[in-house]
Design brief:
- By secondary structure, the chain is mainly α.
- It has one domain (about 5-220).
- It has helices spanning about 5-30, 35-55, 55-65, 70-85, 90-115, 135-155, 160-180, 190-210, 220-225, 230-240.
- The protein is globular, with a radius of gyration of 22 Å.
Length: about 240
Amino acid sequence: MTLAQSARRRLLLAGLLLWLLVVLPLAVLVGLQWAPLLRLDRAVVEALQPRAVEQPAYQVVLNVVTTAGTSWFRLLVLAPVAIWAFRSGRKRLGWLLVVAAGLIGAVTTGLKLLIGRERPDVPDPLYLSDSLSHPSGHASGVVTLVALLLVAFLRLQPPRQRIGTVVGGAVLVLAVGLTRIALGAHYPSDVLSGFALGAGWVLVTTALFHAVPGPGQEQPNGADLLHKQLPTERGAHEHGTEA
C-alpha cells in the first residue's frame, strides 16, 4: 500500500468514525428526546440567549460572525478557490471543492428532516427560521468551509505558519457555533452534531476524490507544465542550445 492510499484510508476512517460516534448517537438521543440531553441543551440556551437580547451591540457582533456559516458565504469564498484549482491543473481538488461545498447543505437538510427537531422556543427570539434545528447548518457549513480551505492551502504554507492557520480556523468554527446558541437559533447538541457532520463530510469526500493534501497537490500536472513552458524554453529543447 502506498503512502497516498494509506492517507486516504485514514481520512475515510476518521470521517466515518465522526459520523458513527458523534452524529449518529446525538441524532438518536434527540430523536428519542432523552431527558438529560434536553435539559442540558435548554440550560445552555437559557444562560446565553438572554445576554444577547439585553445587549444590542453584542447582537450585531453575533449576526456578523454567524454569516461565516451561511451557504452563500461558503460558496462566495470557495468558488474562486475552485476556479484556481481547475486552472492550475488541480482537478481533483477542484471537484472536491465543488461537490463538498455544494452538497453539504443538502446533506444537513436531509438529516434535519429525518430527525424533525424544532428550534429553541425562547421568550424573545433573535433568530426566526422555518427550518428545523438538528443538526445546525451553520455549524456544518463553517466546518466545511474551513476544512476545505485547509485542504487547498495548508500544504502551500511554510511549516511555521500552519499551526496559526489551523488555530485561526478552529477559532472561527467555535465562534460561529457560539453565535448559533447565543442567538437562540440552535441547541448545543445541534451545533456539536453540525461540527461532526461537516468535518466527517470533508474527510470522506477528500478521500473519495483522491484529493489528500500532499506535494502532488501543490504542482499542476505534467501536461499543464508543458503548455506553460516559455516559447524560448521549448525552442531550446527542440533545436538545441547554440554553441
